[in-house]
Design a protein that fits this description.
Elements (H helix, E strand, L loop, with lengths): L6 H11 L4 H14 L1 H18 L4 H24 L1 H28 L7 H42 L1 H48 L1 H7 L2 H25 L3 H25 L5 H44 L19 E8 L9 E8 L4 E5 L6 H8 L7 E6 L2 E2 L6 E3 L8 E2 H5 L8 H11 L2 H7 L5 E2 L2 H4 L2 H13 L5 E5 L7 H13 L3 E5 L3 H6 L2 E4 L6 E3 L1 H7 L1 H13 L5
Parallel strand pairs: 3-10, 3-11, 6-9, 9-10
Antiparallel strand pairs: 1-2, 1-4, 4-5, 7-8, 11-12
Helix pairs in contact: 1-11, 2-4, 2-5, 3-4, 3-6, 3-11, 5-6, 5-11, 6-7, 6-11, 7-9, 7-10, 7-11, 10-11, 14-17, 20-21
Length: 574
């Protein structure tokens, strides 16, 4: 059976998220004390109304005591209304802080490859965070008055008659003990229920993401069975939670109704012997029926459900929000000394039932290498580029940089569609190197061949207000190329990043990157890109081939055919 998640991380998460709510918590505690006034005094006041008023032949005195009870209930109503303001100042900041921590933890896990991102992250960020917010608010509305009511009622009962307090307190304590023991099973089943709910989200998300592949392979029935199995498991878990909650009935009988029965059976004899007054017996029954039994019902019903849900949810949110105290991807301690890339038994597929795009690929790219990756359209070149950069997660195998798993942000991946954001030219060019000096920026612009473009735009301080409307695709690529060239990245992957440049401009840019310190990997879309590289990797189904442009041209029919296709497609110079 699944072990119950450790509650302590969730408790630490709650404490941390609530650390700035001290002032509203104090105000809420103060109003709670005022709310407890009727529970503390009602039985005692009713006993006085009977013993000193109605039973003593003085109805005016009895009515005066009852009027006091009415005043206490009015005060309680005012306190309940006033408590909503500090409650809101506790619950709303809690939700905001949980969202912030969960987003930070999810992004950290994705960037550092701690775990794969899937639809469960969406479930945590939306339904689970909102559930925690709602549960904490519900507990503050129910468990808080429940606790003060129990304490106040038991205190009032002890003041009214210590013997009756013992008659009530012993079975009540036994009932609470039974309830606390049963809560472990309830919590375990709620944990299984939540895991089943997350599995429904994960399986459904995977099926929707792989919809095209599923349709193409005719696997609709299998996908439907996967979703159905996850849904059935969720229904089973829901039923188990409901069965575990059935313990509340015997707990209420033991802790609430049994004391009432004992007082009604023994009360007349005690009154006749002079051991206590009739008003004391009626007042004690009032304490139990009006406060203790409703409190038990709340405790074993709503509060128990809220508490077990909160325990499971916060434990899972704490795990998803965890960010180990270690340097980030841009910290100097994590920067590799060399740009070595190692690919070992790399397999990748889009979707759980899709045919692998790459299968058991092995590749070593030493620091300073210039590698071109070529192959027919759809063979997996861009997929491999994303895997080398740490943007995609392998199905099997590893991609390491300087002996450690590659992480997104450590490799500069420049795709075909370059992104230029509204802002100054300098802001765009320095995006990956904010502290870059003007002289170094000038060298990057000259090396890539972007000086004419920068001059036309008006220099580094010129504003780009509408990148898509004022810049061509090739101009946006030039700006992105300068940005990456000026970055501190030890490995650069150009995924058809020069496809919108003419052949002369492409040659200038690729020559600059080849001369730049570090490793260069180019997804080649022209023969000239492959010819400039020191080595060429040909992706050809399950038989990739590695060698120089000359070697592959002489030994690989597939590469020769690809070169022939490029030659046929090349524009003629007139």
């Amino acid at each position: 059976m699944t072990e119950i998640a450790d509650w302590r991380p969730g408790l630490r998460l709650l404490r941390s998220a609530l650390r700035d709510t001290g002032s509203p918590a104090l105000r809420l505690a103060a109003w709670s004390a005022v709310e407890a006034a009727p529970a503390l005094a009602s039985g005692w006041v009713l006993a006085r109304a009977l013993d000193q008023g109605f039973l003593d032949g003085r109805p005016a005195t009895g009515l005066a005591w009852l009027a006091l009870l009415g005043v206490l209930h009015t005060v309680r109503a005012v306190a309940e209304r006033a408590a909503f303001d500090p409650l809101a100042h506790i619950v709303e900041p809690l939700r905001d802080e949980l969202v912030r921590r969960l987003v930070h933890g999810t992004l950290y896990a994705a960037v550092h490859r701690v775990r794969a991102a899937d639809a469960t992250d969406v479930s945590r960020l939306t339904s689970q965070v909102d559930a925690v917010r709602g549960i904490v608010g519900a507990l503050l509305r129910t468990a808080r008055p429940l606790a003060v009511t129990l304490i106040a009622a038991l205190t009032g009962l002890a003041v009214l008659d210590p013997l009756l307090a013992v008659v009530v307190g012993v079975p009540l304590a036994a009932a609470v003990a039974v309830f606390l023991v049963s809560m472990r099973a309830v919590t375990r089943r709620r944990q299984l229920y939540l895991a089943a709910e997350e599995e429904v989200a994960a399986v459904t998300g995977a099926v929707l993401a792989a919809g095209r592949d599923i349709t193409a392979l005719g696997a609709e029935e299998r996908a439907a069975r996967d979703v159905e199995r996850a849904a059935d498991a969720s229904v089973t878990a829901t039923s188990a939670v409901a069965r575990a909650g059935a313990v509340r009935t015997p707990v209420i009988l033991l802790g609430g109704h049994l004391p009432v029965l004992l007082m009604l059976l023994t009360g007349p004899a005690l009154v006749q012997r002079g051991g206590m007054s009739a008003g004391a017996v009626v007042g004690a029954v009032m304490y139990v029926t009006m406060y203790l039994i409703p409190a038990l019902e709340l405790m074993t019903g709503s509060v128990a459900g809220y508490w077990s849900q909160l325990r499971v949810l916060t434990a899972r949110l704490a795990a998803a929000s965890d960010t180990p105290d270690e340097p980030g991807p841009l910290a100097a301690a994590e920067e590799p000394r060399e740009g070595d890339l190692e690919v070992h038994n790399l397999t990748f597929a889009y979707g759980p039932h899709a045919e692998p795009v790459l299968r058991e690929l092995n590749l070593a790219v030493p620091s300073g290498d210039h590698l071109a990756i070529v192959g027919p359209s759809g063979i997996g070149k861009s997929t491999l580029a994303a895997l080398l950069a740490g943007v995609e997660t392998p199905l099997h195998g590893t991609v390491t940089m300087a002996g450690r798993p590659v992480k997104a942000g450590r490799v500069a991946l420049l795709p075909q569609e370059a992104y230029v954001f509204p802002g100054t030219v300098a802001d765009n060019l320095r995006y990956l190197a904010p502290d870059l000096g003007t002289e170094a920026l000038d060298r990057a612009v000259e090396a890539v061949g972007a000086r004419e473009l920068i001059t036309r735009l008006g220099g580094y301080h010129a504003e780009i207000t509408d990148p898509a409307g004022t810049l061509s695709s090739g101009e946006r690529q030039l700006i992105a190329l300068v940005r990456v060239y000026a970055s501190p990245a030890a490995v650069v992957v150009l995924d058809e990043a020069t496809s919108h440049l003419d052949m002369a401009a492409e040659a200038v840019a690729e020559t600059a990157f080849a001369a730049r310190p570090g490793t260069l990997i180019v997804i080649a879309h022209r023969l000239t890109s492959a010819a400039r590289a020191r080595r060429v990797l040909l992706l050809d189904g399950e038989h990739p081939v590695l060698g120089s442009h000359t070697e592959l041209g002489a030994t690989s029919p597939a590469y020769a055919a690809l070169v022939g296709h490029w030659t046929a497609q090349a524009p003629r110079l007139t």
